[in-house]
Amino acid sequence: MSTNIAVAGGTGLVGAMVVEEVRRAGATPVVIARSRGIDLTTGAGLAEALGGVDAVIDASNVDTLRAKRSVAFFEAATGRLLAAGVAAGVRHHVALSIVGCDRVDLPYYLGKRRQEELVVTGPVPWSVLRATQFHEFAGQLVERSPRPFAMALRMRTQPVAAREVAAALVTAALGEPGGRLPDLGGPRPEDLGRMVRATVRARGSRRIVVPVPMAGRAGRQVTEGGLLPGAGATLGQVTFDDWLAGV
After folding, report:
1. H or E element: which one contains 9?
2. Of 65, 18, 33, which is closest to residue 173 (Cα–Cα)?
3. pTM across the whole model
């Protein structure tokens, strides 16, 4: 009998990879996304989608830089996902979170903190996997920058391949609930500015890279290593340069 694993945010960057990894593991993915008629924030279609599901992987996301919107999304989405999971008899809830979300006060991270709180105190046995920024992060900064510029935040990160994160989430979901899992980061720390410059070169772009300091308390927290994985972390094998060369 096949194991059914629901993937919330299953059409997003990591979610789509998770769906592929679920299939590769011999399990059956159930994609939860608005494009499939399932809305996490309202609960529409959620009960039907979770029928017969053994585990849930929550890779859902919201595109915002505002704390209020981030908290509101994760509070609604996580609350409804957990409630529907209890009703459906889901045995394991796996949430994807971010390394440093508990020690760096970026507005978006406040929503991730709320998500973790709900999962940890919720009614479904759980695992939380915190990962560092993905290799795609530098490219996302370039794409979001006003032309002809490419904004490069001055920060240290330890980027990880999204594919490795997806594989780790599926491994967790197929196992027993493990609580807070070891952080997952890339093989080595990187300077984000260098990553942005390398991305611009690899794309043959004429964008002008502009270093942007991170100000305020969050900037200090990042400078102090707030986004880097701690002791005991699991490290991926794909470096940013290797990943970029393969794009």
Report:
1. none
2. 18
3. 0.94
